[in-house]
Amino acid sequence: MTFKTQTGSMKSFPQYEVWFITGSQHLYGEAVLSEVTLHAREIASALAASEKIAVNIVFKPIVTTAAEIYEVFAQANMRKNCIGLITWMHTFSPGKMWINGLKMLQKPLLHLHTQFNRNLPWDTIDMDFMNLNQSAHGDREFGFICTRMKIPRKVVVGHWKEGAVHTEIDHWCRAACGWHDWQGAQFVRFGDNMRQVAVTEGDKVSAEMHFGFSVNTHGVGDLVAEIAGISPAAVDGLVETYEQQYLVTDTLKSMGDKRESLRDAARIELGLKQFLEQGSFKGFTNTFEDLYGMKQLPGIAVQRLMAQGYGYAGEGDWKTMALVRAMKVMGTGLPGGNAFMEDYTYDFEEQGGLVLGAHMLEVDECLANGAIRCEIHPLGIGGKDDPVRLVFNAGGGVALNASLVDLGDKYRLVVNEVEAISPPRDLPQLPVARCMWRPKPDFKTAVKAWILAGGAHHTCFSQNLPAEVLEDFSEMAGLECLLIDGETRLKDFNQKLNLLK
Q1: How far is 209 from 429, CA to CA, in rounded Å?
Q2: Nearest to 307 by CA among 349, 275, 340, 262
Q3: pTM of the model
Q4: 3-state SS class at 493
Q5: Residues 162-204 pLDDT 10s
Q6: b/e code 401-431 from CB counts within 10 Å (16+ = b)
């Protein structure tokens, strides 16, 4: 379940393949087709060897007939580790040949608009060269048939050796990994969502039909039974891990008066993980309003399980939980983390306006910059014992927040690019992990645009995913994506929202 950063030339997703499919036809003779094959194989090999691309790129024999196209697309649909296709038209490949294949394609599609040669051979170019190297011609035909058929896809333009092209392909590949991970994924809710809250509600049947993952509820009693079965020896081992990895406050140490609370927290973590593993769940959500039989609201347990790759969101918010999981997958191998977050409170004056993000307890330690403290503090809601949690500051740098919302007739992903900062002052009385950021393009514009778009108060905060990855993911998932970035102007944003009504 854990997603670890890879080093060197090792792929972040060695288990996944993207197939490289080249279109041509028999009009130009076998000699041309042989050369097309050589060129396609060389391009596919270069992409496969690129350290910028996180998945394996696999060359497939060129396709020259409707039957060949249909067959390779059918194979891709059936191959579990194939997460998408890259298509390229080396010569002219008539669009009607692609119709039946495109109609049944179930995997994400990237259209690479490139050509084998970077430059024209000015002194020697003739019609033989033109007929062979006519991607400018063939890719437009393919583009037309995709547009006519309303096929979702990404188009990347540039020479296949360019680093920028490899980066664009990688962004799409990462999105495809997140989309692939959702297909057939199982998520669990312990209890219902927080009472009377609108944005955490949603149609789980519609979501399963639309996104491919299922969300089902288990009673908190089922989890409590799992927690109760954890052995004292297992608890001892995890408590020792806490003491090795974190700065444990005195009251939680072996002679402290809250030591048993630390053991309760460890028992909850072990029971939660065991429940998730036994059910093959990729994420979970709970609510402080349904804790029957539990000693404390899970704090450190949730933080550590998220750091291991599980999706999570509070108050029964299953949509954000699923988004957190997808973004963790998409960010695999990149420095920085992806974590559940909540826009909590503001400083209207400091640095033009800052947002302080946090949650009651559950911010993922993958964001931590500096020491991580293991502490216990009172919690005024939930009616249980004081919960143990990890307290830290998140680091600064380029980041974004993303929110998945159900608008009844459609789903929308709202994304805001931000500049994360280290807190400019100490927060000695704040007993939770925290993150601060300046939203782009500026505080007031970003906040107003977010509210107008219906963005939720729960988000996934990302330190490593560019907005392009989420835009690619939205295309695959059939999501309406609204980006708030440095170029956003409220007048234009409002006009776009009016067109989307």
Answers
A1: 45
A2: 340
A3: 0.95
A4: helix
A5: 999 999 999 999 999 999 999 999 999 998 888 888 898 999 9
A6: bbbbbbeeeebbbbbbbbbbbebeeeeeeeb
